[in-house]
Amino acid sequence: FPVTIRNSVIGHSDNSFMYGCQFDGTLTGRDNVGGIIGYHNGSSNTLRMTDCSTKGLIQGRTSVGGVCGYSDYINRERCSSTATVKGTGSNVGGIEGAKDYGYLDFCLFLGSVDATAGSVGGILGLGRNGAVVRWSFCQAAVTGSTTYNDAMVGYAQSCTFTSCYYNKITKASVNGHGNGLDNDQVLIAGTIVTGK
Do residues 95 and 120 make contact, with C-beta atoms less than 8 angstroms apart? Predict the structure, then answer.
């Protein structure tokens, strides 16, 4: 486990529910850095974070995410970010840096992600151990590392995607997760995800 945890609302939380949290500003940390929570740990798939959003600049080293740095057994619903997310290490994502177990549903990322090491993605940097992403959309410039750098998820290990979309003009996918859209199709996908 990392040595340091930095975030805007909560640094480390076990077995918690979170609703309607927002972050707008600049956040700088080291490992497990997230706009809402740095390290979100659960013991079952019944724990949720719902309707949380971030914007601004979120930066750190490893496991850096627009909403959450690292989580396991935590479900996220209708979370969004327009933040600039930067990492000097691996596992950097627009919504979550790294995720084990749990699901992400109806999540939206419209910011940018940049990292200098591997596992960099518009929604997840690293997804593994049964993590699930559904009905989510990403329009992000994902730059930096050429190792495991992708529109939806940098590196997926036993992680599945269902009805997920990304703007293929902004960032192409090479690992096959999600469905690529051109600019004319993006508005339709955004309506599906946000309900607006």
Answer: no
